[in-house]
């Protein structure tokens, strides 16, 4: 081999400590202005990509569990909340993650922009830790800066930052990287305090997210390269390094058991997937992550699990992985960074690659947050060896980083809200029941019920057993005036998944509106057993005729969900039943501030204002309700009744005719109920015509 290859010869074990010392001294002699420039550049890049998050909203995927509907988190830092965080297994055991969410609420309130900027700050800290770790371990300023820059701006990392629920990802990564940094300093100084710091970082990382479980193994990789404490040709040096990490390995066992326990409910969903398909999916995911690293397009918040895998694809992916592994091992003597980077990538992905299936996705962008550091380091060091000019290397790297930063900025923009995020996911994936369902939910929030129904049906076409999609379709249908179709969907939701609480509550509401209070109460009780919520308790109290208890429970529900227009509306309706009209009006107004054009609130406030003698204002609200649901007959009925009361017979006749044209059967029944059984719609029109005729 040539001169360059001889310079890259393997360092023999006797020289390893001297090499580490030389690298440390190299840092001190580096140009501090260059280091500060790199730090400033990384900071500017992160800021340019993620400052837009300040105006982003919560996402309807996991964010309700982590923040918006989590009473413990919404209360801020409290003793009860901290006790709950230490024992909760919701999605996993990660009390430190819960603490940070609570702290955000304590400092900023339930403010999505502020929470996301904290994620951005943690990502910046992680990027700088990558730089510091490689700089301390190798003494290579520019190479370390390039790796940190790639980490900071890669579009695959956007998900971990732009999703509030992924606070656990950036928080865990912080302690993962801090642990590696402290380990490097421990190797150079042999300080017991630094050794204790590594253990403390591991414990705090485990309290953030279980993926840090790979840290002890990664430290052995770091010992191989860049610290060069052992060599595959002298495995005798490896034994004391393993012994050195025994405290960390001992912590792995309980952490793994807790993670598996917390994921039991998710594993049941994919329990019918055998080992061979899981191995095939894992091999494909390893390769697909690399493809998306090189060409990060078509990124989505959710990738459906591959239940059908072409054997040829799995075989090619497996052969590729084997081939790369053989190649880096053959190069280990002269290019140890290739083996270190490759095995870092393979190893850190193990907990989430699907060998033990956690979740129902085939892969996820956020899973690459830490593993790609190994790939970035291997590529950067190889490029530096191939490109002898540092100026050319930094120029090429700068161009790549700028292009990736532009792509990352665009990717972060998709996380603006649920509508944008899941619209994009539906565009770039196929048969994605989760994305279709969440898009349907987002469209319901925008009161676009036709489109919502369309996407819920697409979700059911992809997964006929999707209970939440049946429930969501029911909500869309009730908004479109198809109450019988809605009830059918809610029953279908329970047939596919009887553990869902919301369909029971929705069916209870359906029975209440039909006057069947006993049946409604039974359904509310079933919902409460599955998911005890103040709102459902309030509805149960209303069904039982206990208005005072219902009002008390609604007060709790409003306190827990102040941004929910539905809760304000339901509370207002109960206050109106109790004769507390002014308080009811205030709650209706709160609902309409949160959701202008909210159909039920417009209808209810119209009825309340009419009762209070404010018919002109009532008519305005009924008209707005009619605009919100053009296919609903109800607004036309109440417009007709109010117009008739104030002597506008022609208008009343026209509105009643519109109601009968939309749904004559239910419209007549509604008029009978509204008039105490005196007459139906046709009789009402006939009476007005008789009054109007000479």
What keywords describe this structure?
694 residues; 38 helices; two-stranded antiparallel sheet; mainly alpha; 72% helix; disordered N terminus; 2 strands; single chain
Characterization of this structure:
With 694 residues, the chain is mainly alpha-helical. The chain contains 38 helices and two strands. A two-stranded antiparallel sheet has the order 1-2. α35 packs antiparallel against α36. It is elongated.
Q: How large is the share of residues in beta strands?
A: under 5%
Shape: elongated
**Alpha carbon gap, first and last residue:** 113 Å
Helix amount: over 70%
Which ranges are low-confidence, i.e. pLDDT below 50, for 5 or more consecutive residues?
1-18, 265-271
Q: Outline the biggest β-sheet.
A: 2 strands, antiparallel
**Mean pLDDT over the full residue set:** 90
**Helical run tally:** 38
Q: From the helix content, strand content and strand pairing, which structural class follows?
A: mainly alpha
Set out the fold topology.
Elements: H1 3-7, H2 16-29, H3 32-50, H4 63-68, H5 71-74, H6 79-87, H7 95-108, H8 112-138, H9 141-153, H10 158-162, H11 167-189, H12 192-206, H13 215-224, H14 238-244, H15 246-262, H16 264-267, H17 275-294, E1 303-304, H18 311-330, H19 336-349, E2 361-363, H20 372-386, H21 390-413, H22 418-428, H23 433-445, H24 449-462, H25 467-479, H26 483-496, H27 502-513, H28 517-530, H29 534-543, H30 547-560, H31 565-577, H32 581-594, H33 599-611, H34 615-628, H35 634-645, H36 649-662, H37 664-674, H38 681-692
Antiparallel strand pairs: 1-2
Helix pairs in contact: 2-8, 3-8, 3-9, 3-21, 6-7, 8-9, 8-11, 9-20, 9-21, 11-12, 11-13, 12-15, 13-19, 17-18, 18-19, 19-20, 22-23, 23-24, 23-25, 24-25, 25-26, 26-27, 27-28, 28-29, 29-30, 30-31, 31-32, 31-33, 32-33, 33-34, 34-35, 35-36, 36-37, 36-38
């Amino acid at each position: 081999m040539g001169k360059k290859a001889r310079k890259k010869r393997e360092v023999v074990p006797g020289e390893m400590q001297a090499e580490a010392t030389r690298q440390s001294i190299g840092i001190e002699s580096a140009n501090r202005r260059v280091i500060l420039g790199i730090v400033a550049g990384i900071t500017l890049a992160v800021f340019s990509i993620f400052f837009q998050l300040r105006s982003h909203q919560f996402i309807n995927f996991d964010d309700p569990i982590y923040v918006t509907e989590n009473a413990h988190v919404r209360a801020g830092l409290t003793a009860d909340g901290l006790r709950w965080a230490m024992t909760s297994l919701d999605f996993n055991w990660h009390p430190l993650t819960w603490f940070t969410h609570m702290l955000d609420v304590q400092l900023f309130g339930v403010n999505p922009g502020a929470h996301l900027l904290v994620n951005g700050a943690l990502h910046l800290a992680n990027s700088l830790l990558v730089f510091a770790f490689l700089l301390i371990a190798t003494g290579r300023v520019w190479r370390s800066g390039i790796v940190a820059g790639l980490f900071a701006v890669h579009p695959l990392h956007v998900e971990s930052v732009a999703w509030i629920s992924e606070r656990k990802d950036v928080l865990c990564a912080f302690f993962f990287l801090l642990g590696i940094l402290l380990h490097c300093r421990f190797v150079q100084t042999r300080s017991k305090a630094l050794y204790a710091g590594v253990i403390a970082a591991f414990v705090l990382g485990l309290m953030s997210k279980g993926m840090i479980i790979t840290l002890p193994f990664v430290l052995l990789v770091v010992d191989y390269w860049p610290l060069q404490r052992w060599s595959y040709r002298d495995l005798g040096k490896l034994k004391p390094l393993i012994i050195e990490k025994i405290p960390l390995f001992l912590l792995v066992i309980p952490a793994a058991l807790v993670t598996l326990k917390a994921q039991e409910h998710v594993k049941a969903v994919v329990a019918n997937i055998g080992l061979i398909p899981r191995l095939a999916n894992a091999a494909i995911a390893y390769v697909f992550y690399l493809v998306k690293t090189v060409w990060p397009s078509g990124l989505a918040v959710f990738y459906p699990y591959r239940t059908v895998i072409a054997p040829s694809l799995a075989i090619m992916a497996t052969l590729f992985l084997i081939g790369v592994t053989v190649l880096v091992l053959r190069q280990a003597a002269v290019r140890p960074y290739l083996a270190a980077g490759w095995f870092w990538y393979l190893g850190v992905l193990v907990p989430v690659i699907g060998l033990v299936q956690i979740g129902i996705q085939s892969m996820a962008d956020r899973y690459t947050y830490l593993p790609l550091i190994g790939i970035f380091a291997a590529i950067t060091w190889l490029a530096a060896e191939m490109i002898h000019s540092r100026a050319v290397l930094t120029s090429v790297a700068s161009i790549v980083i700028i292009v990736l930063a532009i792509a990352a900025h665009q990717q972060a923009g998709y996380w603006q809200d649920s509508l944008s995020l899941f619209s994009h996911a539906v565009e770039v994936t196929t048969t994605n029941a989760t994305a279709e369902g969440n898009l349907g939910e987002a469209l319901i929030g925008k009161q676009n019920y036709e489109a919502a129904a369309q996407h819920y049906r697409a979700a059911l076409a992809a997964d006929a057993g999707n209970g939440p999609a049946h429930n969501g379709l029911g909500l869309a249908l009730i908004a479109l005036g198809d109450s019988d179709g809605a009830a059918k969907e809610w029953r279908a939701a329970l047939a596919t998944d009887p553990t869902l609480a919301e369909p029971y509550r929705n069916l209870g509401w359906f029975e209440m509106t039909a006057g069947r209070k006993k049946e409604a109460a039974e359904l509310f009780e079933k919902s409460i057993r599955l998911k005890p919520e103040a709102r459902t308790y309030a509805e149960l109290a209303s069904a039982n005729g206990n208005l005072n208890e219902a009002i008390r429970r609604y007060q709790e529900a409003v306190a827990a969900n102040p941004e929910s227009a539905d809760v304000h509306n339901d509370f207002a309706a109960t206050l109106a039943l109790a004769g507390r009209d002014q308080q009811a009006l205030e709650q209706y107004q709160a609902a309409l501030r949160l959701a202008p054009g909210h159909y039920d609130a417009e209808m209810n406030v119209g009825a309340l204002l009419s009762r209070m003698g404010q018919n002109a204002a009532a008519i305005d609200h009924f008209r707005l309700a009619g605009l919100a649901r053009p296919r609903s007959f109800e607004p036309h009925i109440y417009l007709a009744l109010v117009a008739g009361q104030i002597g506008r017979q022609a208008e009343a006749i026209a509105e009643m005719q519109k109601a009968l044209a939309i749904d004559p059967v239910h419209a007549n029944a509604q008029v009978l109920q509204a008039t105490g059984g005196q007459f139906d719609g046709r009789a009402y029109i006939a009476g007005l015509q008789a009054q109007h005729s000479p």
